[in-house]
Amino acid sequence: MQAAFLVAPEGTEEVELTQPWQAVVAAAGGPTLVSTHTGKVQAFHHLDRAATFPVDLTVDEATAADFDGLVLPGGVANPDALRLDPRAVAFIRSFFDAGKPVAAICHAPWTLIEADVVRGRTLTSWPSLRTDIRNAGGTWVDEQVKICTAGPNTLITSRRPADLEAFCAAFVSEFSH
């Protein structure tokens, strides 16, 4: 199982990167950190700086064909920065176009909205995104994990760090198929 993790240079909620990353490793998979710039990304624990992580590939170097699925960690600043980068949005959309599974947690569905891939889909997120999701044509539900197959791919979404165990189990199972 090869999983791409797309994050902005700053703002990723650390646990939403590290716990899913470890879930991929525990499943004998290969996680790859993809970002919009080379070097390292700065993760956060809420509003405080946390660890940095080395970027493996940029969105210009990576393709959906190289991976079994895409993981989109949250944090408020991370998806907000990614949705402003057309290359990141195109990378996300390419997984939907290829019919490959995508897993997004917390605020990460902002990037899905920008990629115009939530219309007709049912998903969950951090509660403050519910109106954004509805306005983009999606159906928002308040569930620990939502697996939606009503589209070109499987979309796995989750609300918050407290849901990470269920989120990781769901996307690892889907990416392993």
What's the arrangement of secondary structure elements?
Blueprint: E1 2-7, E2 10-13, H1 14-26, E3 30-35, E4 40-45, E5 48-54, E6 57-58, E7 69-72, H2 77-82, H3 86-97, E8 102-105, H4 109-114, E9 122-123, H5 130-135, E10 139-140, E11 145-148, E12 155-158, H6 164-175
Helix pairs in contact: 1-6
- Approximate strand percentage: 25-35%
The total number of structural domains is 1
Unreliable spans = none
What's the name of the CATH homologous superfamily? Class I glutamine amidotransferase (GATase) domain
What does this structure look like?
This protein is of the alpha/beta class. It has one domain: Rossmann fold (3-Layer(aba) Sandwich), CATH 3.40.50. It contains six helices and twelve strands. The strands form three sheets. A seven-stranded mixed sheet has the order 6-3-1-7-8-12-11, with helices on both faces. Strands 2-4-5 form a three-stranded mixed sheet. It has a two-stranded parallel sheet with strand order 9-10. Helix 5 links the parallel strand 9 and strand 10. Helix 1 crosses helix 6. The longest helix has 13 residues. It starts with a strand and ends with a helix. Belongs to the peptidase C56 family.
